[in-house]
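User: I'm new to structure prediction. If I give you an amino acid sequence, what do you actually give back? Let's try with this one:
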Amino acid sequence: MNSFEYCQRIEEQGYELVKPYLRQNFDEYVYVNTVERNELILAFQQNFGDLIVKKDKAIYFIDLKTENEDKYGNLFLETWSNKKRRTPGWFPPEVGVKADYVYYIFLKQRILYILDLPKLRKWAFEDGNMKGYPEKRQNKYDQLNDTWGRCVKITDLINVRLCLAIKL
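Assistant: Good question. You get back a string of structure tokens that encode the predicted 3D arrangement of the chain. For your 168 residues, that looks like this:
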């Protein structure tokens, strides 16, 4: 199994873990990040994330991020999907995903962190808070992409009320 397939499996496990939370908190939801991706699904995911949810009459887009475990107390905010090819990651405001929320899941801890993406981006970029978090190359997986991002302490985000922790 290559790194991409491994990450897809991790993501599927995250979705399975968060499904009861979705059922409990939303009227409807649709998961669009399937293994059988076609051009339409891929375009939707790159622009809006992995989930569409409805609560009352409001519709929200959620980008789902899943990792096996939380070893360091950080969230990886991806700035470059492939830096060598100048492909932006999901986090930068002008070019990243246009989701309303990021649901960041750690499987081993069975925890969901909910991030309001527009507020997180304002804090990071407009308010200048990214300076304290150097950009780092992703080295967890051996992959073709040259992925970069910023490791931001979860407690820092909770302390400024940008992150809500939910035990799953």
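You can read the tokens as a compact description of the fold. Here is one thing that stands out. The chain has a mean pLDDT of 91.
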